[in-house]
Design goal:
single chain, globular, about 120 residues
């Protein structure tokens, strides 16, 4: 539940909202410019903090240290929304920066949540 405490903290909520509703980019080049560590260090820190939270949950899930149903109950919708916004840019970053495992546990989390939803259609309502 410590993870959930972090998730529901005012700091994380502001960071999540910032990424979801204030950070906008059309393509990978613009995405990359907006998160340049020299030009936009604060934007990078906010984005990294949010993505890292979900990456960590993905690691716990992959190692079977947390159950997918608990994740879905507590943070499922936000994890899905977040990956759907930044995931395509992260996948492109893997290719362009030759980092094939970058954010792969966040993607794993998303994919497992989507499978769980398919297996439990009653949860979609």
């Amino acid at each position: 539940m410590n993870l959930y405490e972090g998730y529901r903290s005012p700091i994380f909520r502001r960071q999540f909202d910032h990424v979801m509703f204030r950070m906008n980019y059309e393509d990978w080049d613009e995405f990359n410019r907006k998160f340049d560590p020299i030009e936009h260090p604060e934007e990078r820190v906010i984005w990294f903090s949010v993505a890292s939270f979900y990456e960590g949950i993905g690691v716990l899930l992959k190692r079977k240290l947390i159950d997918i149903s608990l994740i879905d109950d507590l943070i499922g919708p936000s994890a899905r929304m977040e990956w759907e916004k930044i995931g395509p840019f992260e996948i492109e970053s893997r290719k362009r920066l030759n980092q094939p495992r970058a954010w792969d546990d966040f993607e794993y989390l998303y994919n497992e949540l989507m499978k769980y939803m398919e297996e439990h259609p009653e949860l979609k309502a």
